[in-house]
Write a structure and sequence with these properties.
Largest sheet: 7 strands, antiparallel
Number of strands: 9
Strand order of the largest sheet: 3-9-8-7-6-5-4
Order of helices and strands: HHHHEEHHEHHEEEEEEH
Strand content: 15-25%
Shape: globular
Helix content: 40-55%
CATH topology of the largest domain: Alpha-D-Glucose-1,6-Bisphosphate, Chain A, domain 4
CATH architecture of the largest domain: 2-Layer Sandwich
Radius of gyration: 19 Å
Length: 267
C-alpha cells in the first residue's frame, strides 16, 4: 500500500461521517475556531468533538494553529483539492463547473446583503526536506524566482522591508511589505500588501516550518484579508505556489508548467 493510498483512505474515512462533515462545514463558514466555538450550538460533548477533530487532523483536513493558550482549528483544502485533481479533473470538468456556477449564483441570490467577515486562509503541505532547506526556499531570491516567478528580496530581519519582484527582468514589484518576525528556520511572519495605493491595512502571512525526521510540515496562514475576492484569489494562488516549491525541493526542479496559469478548478 502506497503513502498516497493510505492518505486517501484517511480522507475518505474522515469524510464518511456526517458529524465530521458538519464540523468541516462550520469551519468553511468561519475558519479558525476554538473547540468551544465549534461545539457551540451542537448537541455534542467536547470529548466527542475532540475525537472527531483528531480524525480530521490525521487526514490533514483540519490543521491546528496555537495562539497563546488557544488552539484554533482551520480547514485545510489540500486533500480535497488532490481528490478533485485525481478523480474529477479532466473527465467532465466543464459541465461540473457550469453546474457549480449555477448553484453558487442561486445561493448568492438567497443570501442576505449583510456584510460578513473574511476568514483567514490556512494551507498545509508536507515536504521531504530539512527545515533549513525549506527556510532557504522561502527567503532566497534566486530560489523563489525559480518556483514563484518572483524573487522575494529582503535581508529578512524584523522591521526590514521585503519585495516580491517579477523575475522577468522588468523590476516590477507586485507585492511589498515588512518583516514582522523571523526565527530561522521555523517561523517567518510578513505583511503582504498587493495594493499599496489602496488605503487599507495589509494582510499578514505566517510561514511555520515544523520538522519531523526526514520531512517538514509547512503551514501557511494568511490573515487580515481585505475582502472575499482576495480570499478567492489566494485560495487559488497558494496551492499552486506551494506545489511548485514542494516539487523544487523534492526533485530539484519546479513543475514543467507554472501551476497558477491553469484555469481554476472551480469558477
Amino acid at each position: 500500500m502506497t503513502l498516497e493510498t493510505t492518505t486517501a483512505d484517511l480522507v475518505f474515512k474522515a469524510l464518511a461521517d456526517s458529524t465530521r462533515r458538519l464540523l468541516l462545514d462550520r469551519l468553511r463558514e468561519h475558519n479558525g475556531q476554538t473547540l468551544g466555538e465549534l461545539c457551540a450550538g451542537l448537541d455534542m460533548a467536547r470529548q466527542s468533538a475532540t475525537q472527531h477533530l483528531d480524525i480530521l487532523e490525521r487526514a490533514n483536513l483540519v490543521t491546528v494553529v496555537r495562539r497563546g493558550r488557544e488552539r484554533l482549528h482551520y480547514l485545510n483544502p489540500a486533500p480535497i483539492h488532490q481528490i478533485q485533481e485525481r478523480w474529477i479533473s479532466g473527465f467532465d470538468k466543464p459541465r461540473l463547473q457550469a453546474i457549480s456556477a449555477i448553484k453558487r449564483q442561486a445561493e448568492e441570490y438567497a443570501m442576505t446583503s449583510e456584510p460578513t467577515s473574511v476568514p483567514s486562509y490556512v494551507y498545509v503541505t508536507y515536504i521531504r526536506a530539512s527545515p533549513e532547506q525549506a527556510w532557504r526556499a522561502l527567503t532566497d531570491a534566486d530560489l523563489t524566482a525559480r518556483y514563484w516567478g518572483h524573487a522575494n528580496i529582503s535581508d529578512w530581519q524584523p522591521g526590514s522591508p521585503w519585495e516580491h519582484q517579477r523575475a522577468d527582468g522588468s523590476g516590477v514589484v507586485d507585492v511589498a511589505g515588512h518583516v514582522i518576525r523571523a526565527e530561522p528556520p521555523t517561523r517567518l511572519v510578513i505583511t503582504f500588501d498587493d495594493a499599496p495605493d489602496t488605503p487599507r491595512e495589509p494582510s499578514v502571512v505566517t510561514f511555520l516550518v515544523e520538522p519531523h525526521l526526514d520531512i517538514v510540515r509547512l503551514t501557511v496562514t494568511h490573515e487580515n484579508l481585505a475582502n472575499q475576492a482576495m480570499f478567492n484569489g489566494i485560495s487559488r494562488g497558494w496551492p499552486a505556489v506551494l506545489a511548485n516549491l514542494k516539487s523544487l525541493l523534492e526533485t530539484g526542479e519546479a513543475l514543467p508548467q507554472a501551476p497558477w496559469e491553469m484555469s481554476p478548478a472551480h469558477t
